[in-house]
Write a structure and sequence with these properties.
Blueprint (H helix, E strand, L loop, with lengths): L16 H6 L2 H11 L2 E3 L3 E4 L6 E7 L5 E6 L5 E7 L5 E5 L12 E3 L6 E3 L4 E2 L39 E5 L5 E6 L6 E6 L18 E9 H12 L4 E5 L4 H12 L17 E7 L6 H11 L6 E7 L6 E7 L5 H11 L6 E3 L2
Antiparallel strand pairs: 1-2, 2-3, 3-4, 4-5, 5-6, 7-8, 8-9, 10-11, 10-14, 11-12, 12-13, 13-15, 14-18, 16-17
Length: about 350
């Protein structure tokens, strides 16, 4: 399931790897120029022929499709592409200049194959010839479908598994995870070191306190989610942001401090770090999840509102970014926007 094709070009450089390692950097670069056409970068590619490298830059649309390839001089158009909704190319110029096109993916044309390389799978025209290896997450969607059959709006999420969880038992809770199975990492922020004492020395469950971020992996992550599921949690997959981006942002918060709780169930636990001061109304579990989604580039919490303009009866559209404070409000909003063809997909 979900297997990839293998192309073996048997490059001559394999037989001289030891020679490259042993000899000078100049010799290594000479062989690189001889046996490779270009070096791919985030913004385009570099050709290595001739006496000096030449840089080329991709101009992409909102789906990541390479529409224009510009020479480093900023004037010469090396390639231009137009696409049908599922990636078919028409009315193009310089088609053979470079193979990265629809969604920025490589188009494999050897022997007339004409499939796009999406990493985990190849894409043939409007569908995947092999089933999605993670199709059990999306029972209502064909395992061969590309982007819910809505390629004008969405790009393939790459099998990422960013999930937002909410539960509304008592004061409720919101947390987030990345990864699957044994590779799942749960990030949960809260008052895991107790709350601040009141003037009379007493504790209040609604008081502020040290803000603790949990980073749970493996069995700890599974146990945490299993325990929370007893309180009737809801689970939402966020399809427009990658595991890597969310994990990088949350790891930065987690690693900002090495202080562990001095009491509670996570006392001295290296999976729990005191990172800041928890505030019930401005810095809590739900605001942390809201912030990481918004700052990661996800559009899950972004929308528009109509605002009346100065002229009577006319309105203008104002973009808004939501930052929820209460778990129940986050849950209600995600329930509302979760549907087929949405970047939010509810699984539980």
């Amino acid at each position: 399931m979900g297997g990839m094709l293998k192309r073996d070009t048997s490059p001559p450089f394999i037989t001289v790897i030891s020679f490259i390692i042993a000899q000078s950097w100049i010799m290594a670069m000479t062989l690189l120029v001889k046996y490779f056409n270009c070096i791919l970068t985030e913004d385009g590619y570099i050709t290595l022929g001739g006496t000096s490298p030449i840089y080329y830059y991709f101009l992409k649309d909102y789906l990541g499709n390479v529409r224009v390839v510009m020479n480093e001089d900023g004037k010469t158009v090396e390639q231009s592409n137009n696409y049908y909704p599922f990636g078919g190319i028409f009315n193009s110029k310089g088609d053979g200049e470079q193979p990265y096109k629809f969604n920025g993916k490589e188009l494999e044309t050897m022997h007339g194959l004409n499939w796009y390389d999406y990493g985990a799978r190849m894409k043939d025209d409007w569908f995947f010839p092999t089933p999605d290896p993670l199709c059990e997450k999306y029972y209502s969607v064909s395992p061969y479908a590309y982007c819910l059959n809505n390629p004008v709006r969405f790009v393939d999420p790459g099998g990422d598994s960013v999930r937002v969880y909410t539960e509304t038992h008592a004061t409720g809770h919101t947390w987030i995870s990345v990864g699957e199975g044994n590779n799942m990492v749960v990030y949960s922020y809260g008052r895991y070191n107790g709350t601040n004492k009141g003037p009379d020395g007493s504790f209040n469950s609604l008081a502020n306190g040290p803000g603790v971020l949990l980073k749970l992996t493996g069995d700890e992550a599974k146990a945490y989610n299993n325990d929370k599921s007893e309180d009737g949690m809801s689970v939402f997959v966020v399809a427009d942001v990658t595991d890597e981006i969310i994990a990088t942002a949350m790891d930065k918060k987690f690693n900002s401090s090495a202080i562990t709780p001095d009491k509670g169930i996570y006392k001295d636990n290296p999976s729990a770090h005191v990172i800041d001061e928890y505030n019930l109304t401005s810095n809590n579990c739900t605001t942390v999840v809201s912030d990481v989604l918004n700052e990661s580039g996800s559009n899950a919490l972004k929308g528009n509102i109509l605002q009346q303009s100065s002229s009577f009866g006319t309105y203008s559209t104002i973009p808004v970014t939501k930052r929820f404070i209460l778990p129940v409000l986050m849950q209600n909003y995600l329930n509302k926007i979760s549907k087929a063809g949405s970047i939010i997909h509810k699984t539980k």
